[in-house]
Amino acid sequence: MGLSLGIDFGTSGARAIAIDSSKNIVAEVHYPFTNANFQDWQKALFYLLDNLGDSVRSELKSIAINGTSSTVLLCDNWGNPLSEAILYNDGRGIAFLEAIKAIAPPHHPVISATSSLAKLFWWSQQEIFSQAHYFLSQADWLAFLLHGKLGISDYHNALKLGYDLENLCYPHWLENLPMFNLLPEIFTPGTAIDTIKPDLVTRFAIPKDCLIYTGTTDSIAAFLASGANSLGAAVTSLGSTLVLKLLSSQKVDDSNYGIYSHRLGNLWLTGGASNTGGAVLKKFFSNQELRNYSLAIDGQKESNLDYYPLLKAGERFPINDPFLPAKLTPRPDNPREFLHGLLESIARIEALGYQRLQELGANKLQRVYSAGGGAKNSTWRIIRQRHLGVPVLLSKQEQAAYGTALLAQQSVTLLK
Ligand code: ADP
After folding, report:
1. Which terminus, N or C, of the chain has the lesser number of Cβ atoms within 10 Å?
2. Contact between 15 and 25 (Cβ < 8 Å)
3. DSSP letters of 234-302?
4. Is the distance from the beta carbon of residue 93 to the nearest atom of ligand 1 less than 6 Å?
5. Is the beta carbon of 269 within 6 A of some atom in ligand 1?
6. Beta partners for 18?
7. Looking at residue 227, what DSSP letter applies?
């Protein structure tokens, strides 16, 4: 039946997951890195293919790649990067915010120092710009290494470039830019582009009819992995920060709260990110303490401690206040009670977040899948269920590479 391969390029490493036709994982390879750039990505890509195993490679029928959103490259006519890639969190585009504000619609996601468009504006002022032929996202360039086609991207990676997700075209305000000719053609994520390059067929003994598909971003890939696939289904990521994503028929955008929507077929994946989350828990407790104290907490009982756990002042979503102070008092002597108050308070903020998305037009919350370091805390799940008023479940799979493998397999029904 053939295997499908998803490759995730995240912030701390790359991972490949191969799945069979029943969506079971048959191989997984990881390549850790930090502060990697395009030379490391290329090395990582070939390392992952090398280490999948002969039998897995010989059955591959499809491959897709996800990258980090707004990690971008400027390339020459042959796809060679003209300089180091600019990474997702690089804010050098700040100097161009006024210029972007002058052309983009109000509150558009491109109006951010880290947007792909702000990075393109920055490059446009550099000497190498005259040699540029293609402006690509990380996932586009890595897919190019596999199929050899340049100037191709997907509408997830193109959101922060300014692509019009409602009308599926570039807006006039982008078409009028002198650098418009560098922008890629945009396809639906999971569109077959071409078969794998002949030299890779020879090098890795991958079938020559193995198709390379357009990819997505790491956070959408993790959403696809979760199993959330119907209106009102949501995924809460309980990592260092608290990130909410809710599947809606209505597009919701509000830059005041940092809320924007990605397109998923005919639906919208709307979401926001709060500064509260696991990083605050980590400041006070080790992972073992978190586990042990949590087991001793009765999640059905409400803690009356009402905190706003933050590492430093300032919040965007669900409360927009750049000076919002952290509230971590009164602090009881008993660490179990303190943790109960923290878990309860983060659950309140999560519920407020989903309430905010619904007030702005998103569909009614139906169920919440959980991912990230805090997801396995069953006491917390009970507390969260109390505040959210809907079933709180574990994500079926958490790895972005798994979601991207589903994309390569064409089994993301939302995109059909
Ligand atoms: P990141 O966003 O850095 O990728 P992870 O998804 O790896 O984060 O999650 C790490 C966070 O999970 C840490 O901040 C830690 O405090 C939190 N965490 C770990 N174990 C637990 C637990 N049992 N209960 C709640 N939170 C936990």
Report:
1. N
2. no
3. EEEEESSSEEEEEEESS---BGGGTBEEEEETTEEEEEEEES-SHHHHHHH--HHHHHHHHHTS-TTSP
4. no
5. no
6. 5, 27
7. T
Q: What tokens does 15 get?
A: 């991972």
In this predicted structure, what is the pLDDT of residue 107?
85
Q: From CA 162, how far away is CA 166, in angstroms rounded?
A: 11
Strand partners of residue 187: 154
Averages of pLDDT over each 10 residues, the chain, 416 residues: 95 96 98 95 98 98 97 98 96 96 93 96 98 98 98 98 98 97 98 98 98 96 95 96 97 90 97 95 98 98 97 96 97 98 98 98 98 95 98 95 98 92
Asked whether 30 lines ligand 1 (CB < 6 A), one says no
Atom 26 in ligand 1: residue holding the nearest Cα: 374
Instruction: Compute the C-alpha angle 103/179/118, nearest 5°.
Output: 55
Whether 377 lines ligand 1, by a CB cut-off of 6 Å, is: yes
* Ligand 1: centre distance to CA 253 (Å): 28
